[in-house]
Amino acid sequence: MAPLQLTGQVLDVRRAGMYTVLSLTAPGLAERTKPGHFLNIGIGGEESGLLLRRAFAIYQVQSRGVYGGSVDIVVGVHGKGTQWLADRRRHDNLSIVGPLGKPFTLPKDPANCILVGGGYGTAPLFMLADQLRERGCRVDVVAGAATEEKLFGTLEIKRAASTLTVTTEDGSMGVQGRVTDVLDDVITKTKADVIYACGPMGMLAAVANVAAARGVYSQCSVEESMACGIGVCMTCVLPVIGDDGVTRMVRSCVEGPVFRGDQVRWSDVGTVPVDTLGAPTGGH
Amino acid sequence: MSRALITSGPAGSAVHLPAVDMSTSIGDFETPMPVFTASGCAAAGKELDQFFDITHIGGIVTKSVMMNARSGRATPRMAETPSGMLNSIGLQGPGIDAFIDHDLAWLRQRGARTVVSIAGGSVEEYGKLAAKLRNVDGISAIEVNISCPNVEDRGQVFACDPNSAAQVIQAVKRNSDTKVPIIAKLSPDVTNIVTIAQAVERAGADAVAVINTTLGMVIDLETMRPALAGITGGLSGPAIRPMAVRCVWQIHQALPNLPILGMGGIRNGEDALQFILAGASAVSVGTVTFHDPSAPMRVQDELEVALALRGFTTLREAIGYAHRGPDVPEIAEEQE
Q: Is B160 among the residues known to form the active site?
C-alpha cells in the first residue's frame, strides 16, 4: 500500500528516560503499518532552514479512537532537528510521511524468536512482539544500552516477552556488558529459530555475526542517515548481497530498513566493496 | 479550458481566479505544464508517483544515467546545510541498457513526459549514450549533465570549459534523434556562465538547464574531517536560489531566444515564478522534493495561482517579464 503524506497533530508528549514519546493523529496510518515500518517528519515548519525530514521507527499505532487513528514515535535528541521535535507541544501540527520501508517478515509457523533492541531500537519491537505472539511464537527480549537511562520501554516490553534480559555497559541495570555477551546463552535456552534486531549499526553487525555462527536466521533493522526516506535521493545506501549473490549498494529506505542479517556486508558498511556491481575500477 | 482557480484570500475567504494557460515549450518539446522534477531528485518517477500523479506535471527528469552500471560513492553521501544540503552520490545507476529496459519502459507505459538525463566520462561516452537513446520511444527531451569530470582531460569538468562543453553537445547532437531537443545542464561554478551558454548554443543545444548544484564542503566537528566520503559535494536547496535566478537572468539577457529550464532551490510557486520572470520557460523542482514528496505538483498549482494573481492569463507572457520595462511590453514578444 502506498505511503500517506498527512498533517498530524500532537496529542501527547511524554518523557521516557532520555527520550521523548510523541503521539500524533494519523488517520489511515495504523491500517497500513506493519512492525518495522518507519515514518518521517518535516522539521521546523514550512519555511524551515532544516530541509531534510527525520526518520523514526513506528513504535505504536491505534487505528480507532476520537482522533481517527494515531501513531507514536520515540525521539532521541541528536541535534537541532530532533531537539525541535522533542520541544513540540500538544496541538502542534507536524508533516508526516509513512508508513515507509520494508517491514520485518513474520514466520508462517510458530517459531522461537529473540528480539534484540539497542537503546531506543526497542521501539519497533513492541508491535513485532505482539504480532509474533498472536501467531503462537515464543518471544524473548534482549535490551541493551550504554546506561540505564538510554534503555527504552524495558518494563513495558516485559509483558510481551517470556523472558527479558537487560544489559548495560556501565552495569547500571541488568547484566554489565553488551547484548552479544548474553545472546549466545539466550539462543541456547530458548532454542531460537529467528532473531530480530534493531539498534546502532555496530550492535546489528555483532548480533548478525552471533546469529550466523549459531545458524539462526536473523533480520536487522538498520539505521542509515537519509535525506528523503522514499527512495529518490540515494544517500542511505549500504552494501547488501542479493539473492543472486551479487553485492549492490541498496537504499535502506525502500529495500530496508529491515535486511536479512546474513546479506548485509556489515564490515564494509560506509565503503563500496570492490566486487560491488558497478564499483569504481580505479582511476577515479 | 474552462477551469477556474480557487485560492484563499484574506481571512480565509475564497478568491476565484481565471485559469492560466500553463503550456510552454523547451525547443520543439511542447508541454501543457511547466513544472518538472530535477535530475537526481526523483529517481525515475516511480517513487513519487505514490504521492502525486506524475502525468499531471510537466514531466520527469530522470537521474543522470551513464553507459555502465555504477555503484556510486561510499557513505556518508549527504550533509544537511542551512536551507540546503550537500550531496555526493557519485552517479549511482543501472547503466543505459537497464535504464531503457526498465525505468524508461515504466515511464512510457505510465504516460509520463520524460526528459532523460545522461552523463559521461568522455565526449565519446556522451555520443554513445545519445546513440542508445535514438529511436527509443517516450523521450521528450535529453538533458545533458556536463558537470562530470572528463577522464581524458585530468578530470576537468566539461561544464567549466566552453570547448569541452561544446564538444559534448556536438557529440550528443550528432548521435541523437533530430526531433528530440537537447538541453545542456550548466554548472554555476564558472567565471561567466553566459560564455558557456553561448558555447553550447553554438554547438547545437536547443535549450539550457540552469543551474546544477554548486560545489561545497562541510567539516564534521566530531571527527574533524570532511563530513562527506567524497570530501566535496553539490550544494542544493533554497540556499542557492538567488544564485540560480541570477544565472537565469544573465543567460536570458544575453541569449533571449535560448529556452531555459530553470532550477535551484525552488520551494513554492512564488519561487518558481521568479525563475519564469527572470527568463525560464519551465522549471525543475529538486531538493525540496526530499522535504515534501508532492512538491512538484504543489509548486505547479501554486505557480498557476501566483501567475493568476498577477493578471497573467498565460505562462508564456510571464517568461522573461522581469527584463521588460513597463513602457515597452512588446520587446520580447517577437521571439521565435
A: no
